[in-house]
Amino acid sequence: MSSRVADRRGAFSIGLQQARYRFCLAWLALRMPLTRPTLRVPDRLIVAPTDLRATDPYIAEEILEGRFPLAGRVLVTDGESPFTLQLPSRGFAERLHSFSWLRHIRTEKTDEACANARSITANWIALHGKRISGIAWEPHVTAERLIAWLSHSTVVLQGGDSVFYRRFMKSLAYQAKYLRKIADYLPETETRLRLQIALSMAAIAMPSSPAAVRRQGLKLDRELERQILSDGGHASRNPRLVLDLLLDLLPLRQTYINLGHDVPQKLIPTIDRMYPALRFFRHQDGDLALFNGASATPATELLSVLRYDETSGKPFKALPHIHYHRLAAGETTVITDAGAPQSAQAAHSAHAGCLAFEMSAGRHRYIINAGMPKFAGRSYRTLARATAAHSTVTLSETSSSRLAKSPLGLAVMEPFNVVHCERSEDAQGNDWLSATHDGYLAAFGYLHAREIGMNVKGTKIKGHDKFIIPEGAARGGKKELVAVARFHIHPAISLSRIDAETILMDAPDGEAWLFTAPGLEVEIEEDIFFADVSGVRETEQLTITFTLPMVNEIRWMLKRSE
């Protein structure tokens, strides 16, 4: 109980941090314009750091024609500034103001395309560059914009005159100063780390004293130490964040080296730790597992990061600090979430997917979680965080960890504990994982226990789900509770029924697996896959429904079809 009280206090602390940040933002909105005449403006840029993210010439052509295809929407400007129009969604506004789309202009680096990008940039400076307010100055948007402007300065400045150059440099300096002012007021989330990455990049890309470069390197080191754990995972437990951070950390490392600066002490060891974690979450089809906020992974971005991997080696069996386990044999992989949020900060993005798993074989993912939609609204994002959106068991259609409200109304996961987790190998060499969580204990009086085992050839996976009344505890009332075990199926897999308890799962290349639950009825139901690269997509799921206390455990099996 004491740990739960501590977690609630932690959530309250996060709310206070957010309130403190909002107060700081309001103060800066009034104060910074008054101090702007004293701003030290660099006279030049030293380097344009590399951007490893994927580029698309189609997007470059569309932007040149006055159409902005961002965040799953398209804005037609008809010759107007996009910043004066009603934007389609918050996600669109964030992408537009972050200028992450500048990287696509590299593919069409004509004078016309660069002049258009420069005009849009000048327009942003005129409309938003002097007033700190709105989405344009949200910390994560500003950090992304600072990195984008530095990385693609050659695009924006090509053909520009000295007047624009001066305005551009002044805005860069102003944005960097703003980020330095708010850095200490932010909660310890990935936004704070990205902010330090952006400031580190600015410190070496613009003329700075050696002392200033060292100071910023120390701040980056502290944030890396806080957020990247010893097993290489991020404190949020989001697999996709490992990739996203490497996309910025790798160019930063190389820029330090190219310019002859001392690399921050923690930077290279942290990158080396993150690579094994990235490989840990990689499925047989090359995509990353969908846990705790992960969404679709562009293959080009993943490959562009992996080509710099110097750590090599097979993926680990477990990431003990962020509490994931991997069972792998032959061409089959199972990845299981066996942990709780690392902190109250992490609970803001955590999913209620404890004991959920994903399974891939050959070149395909078969069983997945629904994942997080990249561009959908709040209602879809809330649904994606529920237990029902994960391949695990729900009790009474209730998530194992409910969404609560922090003082500022931000959705956080209520705390729970993993009360048992054990990895073992039986006499035949089969790999077993057993874990139990108490997310249903307070509301219903049960612990959920799950056991998953894989044989040495990777051709058979056995599962066992059970609801347990803890020793010495009595379940309140005699109400029957309906439990549903869900197994979300990747959209590429087709399902066909063999009999009431057996379903055939067919991949496009002909590889097939049988799912069976002896003595139980397996249903095929409609489902939604949130994390497809094309957006929210229809798919199917397998469900097994049973009623407590009459039936308190089920067994199921996956077997490669001959």
UniProtKB/TrEMBL annotation:
Q: Which domain of life is it from?
A: Bacteria
Q: Which Pfam families match?
A: Hepar_II_III_C (PF07940)
Q: Where does the protein principally reside?
A: other
* Gene3D superfamilies named in the record: 2.70.98.70, Chondroitin AC/alginate lyase
Q: Domain Heparinase II/III-like C-terminal: where?
A: 313-556
Q: What is the name of this protein?
A: Heparinase superfamily protein
Enumerate the subcellular locations listed in this protein's record, separating them with semicolons.
Cell envelope
